[in-house]
Fold this sequence. Notes:
The complex is a heterodimer of chains A (462) and B (112). Chain A has 462 residues and is an alpha/beta fold. Chain A has an eight-stranded mixed beta sheet, covered by helices on one side. In chain A, helix 9 (303-338) runs antiparallel to helix 11. Chain B is α/β, with parallel strands linked by helices. Helices cover 40% and strands 30% of the residues of chain B. In chain B, strands 1, 2, 3, 4, 5 and 6 form a six-stranded mixed beta sheet that branches. The chains are: A alpha/beta (462), B alpha/beta (112).
Amino acid sequence: MKCLIYTRxxxxxxxxxxxxxxxxYLLKIVNKPHLEYFIDFCSTLQISEIRIxxxxxxxxxxxxxxxxxxxxxxxxxxxARPEDSLKRVVLKNFSFCKDDDVLIISxxxxxxxxxxxxxxxxxxxxxxxxxxxxxxxxxxxxxxxVKDIEETKDFIDNPYLAINKLSNITDYFNLSMDILSSKCxxxxxxxxxxxxxxxxxxxxxxxxxxxxxxxxMIGNNVRIGEMVGIGKNSIxxxxxxxxxxxxxxxxxxxxxxxxxxxLEIDNKIIYHNKLIxxxxxxVIIMDDDYLISAINKEKKVGxxxxxxxxxxxxxxxxxxxxxxxxxSPFLFLIHKKYNLTQIYYLSKDKKSRRxxxxxxxxxxxxxxxxxxLSLDKYPYLFFVLSGKLLLVGNKLxxxxxxxxxxxxxxxFYQPGVYSYWESLNQGFSSEEEIHELYYVNNNSFxxxxxxxxxxxxxxxxx
Amino acid sequence: MEISFEMRxxxxxxxxxxxxxxxxxxxFKEKFTKYTEQTINFVLDLSDLDFLDSTGLGSIVACLKxxxxxDGDIRVAEMSEKPRMVFEITRAYKIFEIFDNVDVAVMSYExx
Lengths: 462, 112
């Protein structure tokens, strides 16, 4: 069986009003994008091929789900016109639909199910959806015409499935709370679960004074201040900073948000700088950054820190200019054989540039000497002066598919001539993401100075 | 931001409409200081306040401090939901007495 998902977004003004920067189908419900619940459902029914049809640009969805391998399914994409009916969409994807039964999921709703129950009654569910069609969920059998598609019935009478229309913000809030408090075992939820109903993500940093009460869901890259209380039914997204002494309960802190110190968050949704009442949907947009705000993904490097980076780069340039000029004829000769350049990403939005690199010739004895004296860093130092690189920052990543994906996962990326990765001396490439995430979340002024000194010391004496 | 002021039974009823934020907080504090020449007990009618940020709340707290030093008080009444959320998350409800009716808030001074 295949699956066609028609991600229509007409009539979803509530989502646009509250979560304007997020595609409604990627809106996280208990830290998991809405559409991913459909993909899980399809996987459970052993559907191996899914086509996602959207009536707006599909980039965000395809960027997230890619080819679907992560979920064990093949995902393809297509686009439809906003006015296209469901029948029209199926017709437009007829070559995909014609040679197998097709589960059709259409319009915006949340499908409530228990993944464990479904595993046991897969055949019963598929048989039922062939005869009891709903505009949201139905199976079009192989060989049947598009005329058999149901476009009006908006409910489903199946004991294992329920449709939640998610028609406003309170539906969204109540559903999230309901899943976390009593249905977390019905779905595959993200994060480690060391204790019942406690889901913790990667790169979670919190002091001992923090109290965390289940049920709770905390995402990746979360930094929690001293004496914070994460109470029952708290959903903390990815890339969150919570200030000291704040108490959170029965609330959703959406990804990429900052929550200030000494606040009491109960029955609220915080989406960047929006404070939303989970009970009434009332919203207040905060203009200042003291209470709540969005996390700036391009982390600002202070003026003082940048000036010190430039000064250190200048000193290093002065010290290395004559030695580098002396070795440059040899480098020119080696370049002909080894190509001493590579293309590197310079920013999170994938801007790139061809730059000097000794990677291709690192085993050459002459290059080993250059590395010992850190003369290979010399050409990069000018990029510090022009502001394109930091002296110490993220690792400079070469253009590869893996690095492109890694950059997408990093909250911010500001590459440096020296990096934390390099200071580890013997990191494995499979751990690049972990180390970069660690650096992103823990770097500091003195930490960067330490990295700079350590690398130069190791190179000279190791 | 619009501010209207009236005296009711020795209590100053201050109605703040629109936005109270970093832009107009100085004006709010300046006007409040002027009204303290007439009374030290106030009721802040926030029924038409659409927006309140941390600076706006800070200015109300600063005003409370001024009148508290003279044994006066500021009581908040008819707070609309948006400022109420700010009062909730900042725990400001612990330092202000909040009433759902201006008249009752005014009368509460008499009862004390």
